[in-house]
Amino acid sequence: MGKFVHKHSSYSSKKLVFFISIAGLVGAAFIANFLRASSSSGYLFVSSNWALEKTSVTNQASRKESVEDKKGLVPERILSATFADLAAPDLQWEEMPPAPVPRLDGAAVQIKNLLYVFAGYGSLDYVHSHVDVFNFTDNKWGGMFDMPKEMAHSHLGVATDGRYIYVVSGQYGPQCRGPTARSFVLDTETKKWNSMPPLPAPRYAPATQIWRGRLHVMGGSKENRHTPGVEHWSIAVKDGKALEKQWRNETPIPRGGPHRACVIVNDRLFVIGGQEGDFMAKPGSPIFKCSRRHEVVYSDVYMLDDEMKWKVVPPMPKPNSHIECAWVLVNNSIIITGGTTEKHPVTKRMILVGEVFQFHLDSLTWSVIGKLPYRVKTTLAGFWDGYLYFTSGQRDRGPDNPQPKKVIGDMWRTKLSL
C-alpha cells in the first residue's frame, strides 16, 4: 500500500509540473504578442487590398479587450475603422506617362483637355517654380513654362474662369518657410502672368474659387503655418483682371484650416474636409526646418447659399485632408481621390487615404466608389472622355503601411461608369 501511494504522489507531481510549464509558455506567448502589437511600429488594423495585392478588405470596429498580467488588467487597443481602409470595389487603373517631375503640395487646374500643374515640393529642401501641362487628348506632357519669381511654391489657392487661372498666396520656399500674400493671374492662351492685389494677409492652402464674378478665398493656415484661419475675402474679377483695388470681407467660414476641396457647382459653393493645424518651422532653425504639431483632420462639409450664409451638409465618409486639387465633377457629383485622415492614435503618424469618394449633389449623400492603386495625398485630378486621372503627391509605404513615404510624379487613369 505504501509503495502504491508513493507512485501516485510522484505521478501527480510530474503532472502538476507539466501543466504549469504549458501555462507559462502560453502566458508568455500571449504577453509577447500583446507587447509587439502595442509597439510604436505596429498597426492593429487590417489594410484593404490595392491594385498591388488581391486580398479581401477587413474593417475593424472600435473595441477594447483586456488581458491579465502580473499587475492585473491591461487594455488592448484595437483601432477603429476611421484609421483603416474603407470597403470599396476595385477599379481598373492604367498607368500613364508620369509627370516631368515628382511634386508634393502642388496645385492643378483643368481647362478643357489641358491639365495645368503648378509648383510643389520636389523634396523638403527643393521646390519647383514652373508649370507642367498634360494634354488629355494625346496623353502627353509638354509646354512647360516658368512662374513669376515672386510667386509661392506650394500651398497655393487656385481657381479658373475657363481661360484665366488665379493663383493666390501660399508658401514661398522649401521646408516650412513663411507665406506670401502676393497673388497672380495666368492667361493660358498667351502664357503671360500679371499681378493681382495681394491678399489682406498671407495664407497657406486657402480654399479658393470664382463664384458670381468674384474670387473667393477662405480659411487656410495663418502666418505661423499652424493656426487655422476662418477669414473669408472676395474681390471682383473679369477677363484676368481685378475690378477692385481691395479685397472685401465676407462671412467667415465656420471652421478654419488648410488643405480642403473648394468646388462651385449648380451655383453653390462647397468647402469639403480639411484640417486644423500643420507642421511649423522649428524655432531658431536657419533653414525653417519643419517640426510636427498637433493636427485635427475633419470630415466637415459646408455650403454657401444665396443669402451668403454657411450651411452644414453631410460629412465625408471619413475625415479627409490634403484634397484641395484632388476633385473633379462627373455627372452632377463631386469625385475626390485620396488624401490624409486622422493620425494613428498610438504612433501619432500620418495616415494616408486610398479611397475614391463620390458626393451626389442631388441627394447630398456620400459613397465610396473604389480604391486607388495605393494610398496617396495631394493628388492632382482631372477628368476627360470618361476617364478619371490623377497625378503626383506622396504615396504610402506599401499595402500594409499607410504612412507617407515617396513623393511621386506618377499618373494613372480609370474608366468611370457612374
TrEMBL record:
<keyword id="KW-0812">Transmembrane</keyword>
<dbReference type="InterPro" id="IPR053256">
    <property type="entry name" value="Kelch_repeat-containing"/>
</dbReference>
<keyword id="KW-0472">Membrane</keyword>
<dbReference type="InterPro" id="IPR015915">
    <property type="entry name" value="Kelch-typ_b-propeller"/>
</dbReference>
<protein>
    <submittedName>
        <fullName>BTB-kelch protein</fullName>
    </submittedName>
</protein>
<keyword id="KW-1133">Transmembrane helix</keyword>
<dbReference type="Pfam" id="PF24681">
    <property type="entry name" value="Kelch_KLHDC2_KLHL20_DRC7"/>
</dbReference>
<feature type="transmembrane region" description="Helical">
    <location>
        <begin position="16"/>
        <end position="35"/>
    </location>
</feature>
